Amino acid sequence: MGYWSIAYGKSLSDRVKLGLMEKNYDHKANEEKIYREWDASGAFTPPTGAEIAKTGQKTFTIIMPPPNANDPLHVGHAMFVTIEDILVRFHRMKGEAVLWLPGTDHAGIETQFVFEKKLTKQGKSRFDFDRDTLYQMIWDYVHENSDVAINQMKRLGASADWSRYKFTLDPEIVREVKKTFFKLHQEGLVYRGVKLVNYCTRCGTAYSELEVEYEEKNDPLYYIKYGPFILATVRPETKFGDTAVAVNPKDTRYVEWIGKEIEVEGLLGKFKLKVIGDDLVDPEFGTGVVKVTPAHDPNDFEMGQKHGLPMVQVIGQNGKMTEVAGKYAGLSVLEARKVVAKDLKANGLMEKIDDKYIHRVGTCYRCHRTIEPLPMKQFFIKVKTLAEKALKALDQGETEVLGSGHDKILRHWLSNLRDWNISRQIVWGIRIPVWYTPKELKTEKENYVVSETSPGEGWVQETDTFDTWFSSGQWPVVTLKTNKPGDFETYYPTNVMETAYDILPFWVMRMMMLGIYMTEKSPFKTVYLHGLVRDEQGRKMSKSIGNVINPLDLTEKYGADALRMALVMSTTPGQDSNTGENKVRGMRNFGNKIWNAGRYIQELKNSRTQELKKENDGVGGKKDREFKSKMEEVKKELTRLLDDNRVGLAAEYIYNEFWHWFCDEQIEKNKQGKLSDEVLKEGYKAFLVMLHPFVPFVTEAVWKEVNPNQKLLISERW
Q1: CA 469 centroid distance within chain
Q2: Residue 280 sits in which domain range?
Q3: Model confidence at 441: pLDDT above 80
């Protein structure tokens, strides 16, 4: 019986005395201990700017997309942690000064929405508290849970520099965000005005166009008599705010009516409307005649601005009909729609109803209630100049987008972006630093002061907060500017911004616009967009389906390495991927393969004097030379893939080369005496280095076994 079999037939204490590895790799016994060793070693913390200035060391920077400070990680977070950690470990092992700067997000409306649900369960409402009390309650709630996301990222192996951690409501971050607002205001890029905004009557706040989710719905299309016309609408309840009817100026059916006034029989009596001609009217919709309600429809608002039409608001911010609606005042929108339609029919003013009309309806991305376009006085940023500079950065290759077709998507958004509404009617966030006198508030004049503090007695601060994306859009700049001395000068622009493709217009676009505005440089050289993580059948993960993966449960069961490999294996930027428990279980086998190969290598170290067969012609012979040549090829190809940010292909490549070429072929050759022990040992160590960015825990654990007196693998050179 060989030494291998004899040694592993011994008791645990005997194996320990012999310095032998355990039979199986136990992730539970190793991961937490190894992470503490990494952290204590200082490997996560790169040199300061002053040190790098002396050495000229190459830098590599990733600013972590900040997860919600009070939420546990989901599988999408696990994906970004894995991809980014692979890249930073690789570049760190290449000898670069690597900064992976972590942080968490206050998440504005999302956090307040969750907190309000908590209040509801207690029989309370946000309206039960004054502003300062509610803010403090949410602050306490967030900070009670603030370590959850951080600890879970560490559990996945995130080798971020926690000494540079930032929170989006840190005082120094808030000051920098306000400075940007001051600069925009001074340069005439901020204005306050009444526009139609996307308003959620449930969440009680306005949203930008990007935050509205559109759903296809089947709603009745009502054909209503309007004087000499029949017109179609899905919203008969807004008829009390109509200030014109419109036709397409090229529609020969109605061209003679343009400019004339018509008298209409209504539910509140007769009224008169002007007929206007506008290209926004689709002659194919309904009868080709539409009612114009500037206060409650984006296209109608645009026509109203163009033709000088008054705005009459019939729906309030509470989602109910205003006094303008007469006897229908106080009804909710849906209630009013039903009652108005019923009364129109009873009064002979309804021509017909089409029950098969399908259209896109805007909904709140948080609570999914139908969005109401409402006229509100808000703060807006003029985006044209900012967007043009971002487009220029793309044109000149200053920033490259990885992800099939997403470069075009980003360009489309930048080319068609409307002015950005940055006002939010919520408490949880950075309060807009604008001050009014009580008189100015009452008269709604445009005179206001932009200031960090009150300009004097009697001045009242704006109650709205900044859109969360306004502060997080400055994230790469403000996190570096408020950190260690020299960080901004040394680590900006960053190298890679890695995030999910679904927030490309929400976040990436705004970081480019604001980053270039603040620094004249695009904040990152490469945008790496990972796709959605779907279940093993390719379905989107959903609580209703019951297919949601909890990454921490799988980490506990199979180890962080197994989850990491399952998430990134064979993935491509910009494309969705499938992951489930079976895939994670399979990747645990890969970790065991690495461990078992280490046990074999350890046996060679402790046991025999090898007799080589003629095929190798002695140590350093033909087979050894072929092995070394192949190892150089593997190193070169893996390096190329990672330098090109092709993380999914790199994971697949090193997996196959290690499992099939090294373990299945080369270990077998060694057993047969066709490959020298020394060459195999060195090859195994080289594979541990190359595998480390992908499966850091098991490789570190084995490295300590086969190199007991050497430094940590995380600090080894590539």
Answers
A1: 11
A2: 205-372
A3: no
